Amino acid sequence: MESFKVFSLVGMLIFGTLSSIFSKIVYQTEGKDLNGHTKLFRKPWATTSLMFLAMAFCLPIGAAVRARKRRQQRRAAEHDSSTPLLDSHHNGGDGEEKHTSIRSILMLALPMAFDLVATLLMSVGLLYVTASIYQMLRGAEILFSALFAVTFLHRPLNKLHYLGIAACTVGIVVVGSSSFLGSGDKDKEAGNGMGGDASQVLLGMLLIIVAQAMQAAQVTMEDYAMSSVKLEPLTVVGIEGLLGTAALFLVLMPIVQFLPGPEGEGIHEDSLESLHMLTHSIPRWAIPAVLAANSLTLLGYNVAGMFVTSELGAVTRTVFESARTLFVWLGDLLLFYTPLGLNGKLGEAWDRSSYVQAAGFAVLVTGTLVYARGDQKEEDELRAKHSHHRPVRAVPEVTDYIMSGAKAEDMQLACYVSA
């Protein structure tokens, strides 16, 4: 069991780091368009659709996990005469409904819509910022989640929560400011690491921050939905992935095909050109290889994150999410300064603004950990208060799901508890 926990932690860090890096690399990969011109594969709608397709594969994985648990419980029941076989079979599904009802699917449609919009906004924002800044700015989700928790869930915050929120706010401001200190130099040095001028960098950061508000709203919706249906987190992710994939391929991408605007900037996107570039990438097959790697690492990150949360808890998850952000930055630097980055075309350089970014990141990590400690303190107080009356009930699937990272994008929140 200990080796499984270590494997899950290592898998979460490796897959999560690679997923963020590949998400940026695909925008820096070139191919031939329909007119034979060389251009970058800046296709946020295409990458978003593949993210949701990867989420959909959580459905068969979740089914396999449940089947394995049922087999283990059946074997345990056979060796324990005190446990009736019928009871073991009854409890073998871990509380999951035998069949996913239409009502369950509809309940998850609205959270899926928030997730889809958030993922698309982040995909567009990533066009204009480096992978490290993209990853750090996603720490803003904790601010909006706290706001929605107080406003809609009527959840009280303690002093550690407020201190963590203040530190996160300062850290995000400092990280964002660092983008402008060296945006011009980085744009020249690191190819398309910072994919535009100062105004485009600002737009990218704003889109990423707005996306965090959307994901926080999604969590609030899922809190309500998951209190009404009995579904495991992997099943929830899979259903949302399936719904999102259908919405993208059948409705949204045909619409953006004919919308006005520059191609590949988030409004208009030529899907026919995207398919053409897949087979005319430079070097050959580079684009489909990076897209496939991104989808597979995202799937691995989702599954590993689920096991980390269930086996080690949400606070551990928070700590290692901060480590993931650091590894993304180190990976980007490694790309730029080694032959892996194709002589500086990939990754990002270390310049004068990086010192400011590092300081902001340190403050952001501190705030995230302090906020998580506030959640732990709240849980401990509730546990002590009710230890002589009845056990504390963590808001069940929601606690695991919020911290699991099993989304198109991960979440940096801590446990919710309820008396």
UniProtKB/TrEMBL annotation:
Residues 72-97 are annotated as: Disordered. GO terms for cellular component: membrane. Residues 75-97 have a biased composition (Basic and acidic residues). The chain crosses the membrane at residues 47-65, 105-129, 135-153, 160-181, 201-221, 233-256, 285-304, 325-342, 354-372. InterPro entries: EamA_dom (IPR000620), EmrE-like (IPR037185). It holds the Pfam family EamA. Keywords: Membrane, Transmembrane, Transmembrane helix. Belongs to the drug/metabolite transporter (DMT) superfamily. Plant drug/metabolite exporter (P-DME) (TC 2.A.7.4) family. This is EamA domain-containing protein.
